[in-house]
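Supplementary Text 2. Reproducibility record for the structural model of the 341-residue chain.

All settings were left at their defaults, and a single model was retained for analysis rather than an ensemble. We include the record here because the model underlies the residue-level annotations in Supplementary Table 4.
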Amino acid sequence: MKTRLKDIAQATGFSINTISHALRDEPDIAEDTKHYIREVAKKLDYIPNIPAGSIKSGKSRILSVILPDIGNPHFTIMFREIERYFSDIGMTPFFMNTRERAIDEINAVRLSIGQNVDGVILCPTQTETESIRLLEKSTIPFILIGRRFDEPINTDYVICDDTEGARIATEHLLSLGHRKICCVRVNEHISSDRERFNGYCQALSEAGIGVEDDLILHLTLTEEENRDAIRSFFASRPDCSAVLAFNDILAYSIIREAIAVGRRVPEDLSVMGFDNICSDYPLPIGLSSVSVSKKNIARIASELLYSRITGKEQNPEKQHIIVPTRLFLRETTAPPVADRQ
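Retained model, structure tokens:
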């Protein structure tokens, strides 16, 4: 038999009204009481009647998380933290994967609005702004995570310091003695791509080194054509001794292809990633990488969105939160071979 509010009331000693308010996270119930009631409800396998609850409260207790590539551990880690945060307060996040396709993003946003979700966390493809327009028109609270738009588009967002992360990564490779450093770019529409490239350029400029166009390696985030592009780059620039990849997944692709064409890592080629997925996954090769505080970013975005949903965040000004980055150095970076002889 399906568990009812009456069953939870009998198990806890609270009234049905208190149980109902606690499960809807109403402010008139103490936090420790809410937590206790949720735990009992979980043990009793209570399943709320979402449509009925929505009609009564005006809230669905559901939010959507729209991310570009769930196959990338970077986004998987983020989603897990978002899921953990909202599950703890009795809300259900559901995930949609855009595959870095604008049309899939627009469809995901339309579906979210149609399902009357309470909020949206979105990492945008940035090749269009229709999804932002739809969200603004709907008045559903939403937060951008990982990427941001330039003016005049103004939204809440939580990102890492992409520029500084790429700058300190490039600066470290320079400090090891590398001078021919490749920078991987993926899509100039994406804010993190532009800002990481800017950080790379800053570090080279500070070292008195010019940017060489043929040391910029253009790859795709979905890997369809990357193998040939990487091998072609190695053939055209055998003097390149280090690579700053756009993310860790691409860094590992570059390592794989480097080994395939006979280049040793890090003896012949140092590789620096961006995302630090080694922090959560015991991968066989310890990749040097820029840490972007994935869980911290996800937590901050979740807290900000919840404060918008509940009205606790009274400031109408959009919040622009930039989380610091730092380096994690592992086995894929070292001085050039000539400098160690």
